[in-house]
Amino acid sequence: MIMQRSTFTGSPIALQGTDRFADRMRRISDGLLDEGALLTANLRISGGKAPWFALRVWTGREKTVEKSLDSMGVRSLVPMRRKGPDLRRRGRVIEGQMMPVIHGYVLVQMMALSEYLAGLLGVEHVIDVLGGCERPMRLSDKEVSRFNGLASKGNFDWERPVHLVVRAGEPVRITAGPFCDRKAIVVTPSKKGRGDVVVAIDLMGGEVPVTVPLALLKKL
Questions:
Q1: Among 71, 140, 171, 194, which residue carries the largest CB count within 10 Å?
Q2: Residue 64 near residue 125 (C-beta atoms within 8 A)
Q3: Residue 36: which region, alpha, beta or left (left: phi > 0; alpha: psi -120 to 50)?
Q4: What letters, b where the CB count within 10 A reaches 16 and e where it falls short, cover 138-150?
């Protein structure tokens, strides 16, 4: 029997520098984002309107991601609303803090090219692009403006009364934001007429749980 020896010849590459692989990939992502942000800004200046997309991020890191994108020149938005209920301590009422309308998502305006959207995945705390980089879910500039306007007027405040009772398993429709007009199924019921509920949205062949204000829902 003849034994064959697996021998590889050559020399390792990219060992001369001090950069780690993660550092090199970060520079590539930053370069793509710089280019995408510049093209998007030029489009706005010339009167055009680039679409918006939603990034799924770690819950609680929405504003951190927004600040990171802003420092790179990438236009982003986290519509905020009042947290509730208000806290009561020793006879004093402490107003609730501001929190995102939809937890775990940041809206981004960018040219609809997969390589630019893929660059967004290199931003710390970003999980993915809603719908994927190749066929992402788009939002119009008009819808983003409407959604942000509703939030700024307090329509989604926790304490705001909503004349709606939902039960687990009920079908509902989301009326604004990144999931606008999408059908969802109620996961956590709400009889309080205010606050948040968890719904499941059918997305890319699987159910995605999302926490949204009750005021964002409409019964089917």
A1: 194
A2: yes
A3: alpha
A4: ebeeebbeebbeb
Distance CA(110)–CA(215), nearest Å, equals 29
**Average model confidence (pLDDT) across the chain:** 82
Structure tokens at 177: 């934001």
Q: How far apart are CA 169 and CA 164, in angstroms?
A: 15
128 pLDDT more than 50: yes
CB 62 within 8 A of CB 100: yes
For strands 87-89 and 52-57, give the pairing.
unpaired
**pLDDT at residue 14 greater than cutoff 70:** no
Q: 201 near 179, Cβ under 8 Å? A: yes
Percentage of the chain modeled with pLDDT above 70: 73
In degrees rounded to 5, what are phi and psi of residue 140? Answer: -80, 160
Is the pLDDT at 16 greater than 60? The verdict is: no
178 vs 66: CA distance, rounded Å: 16
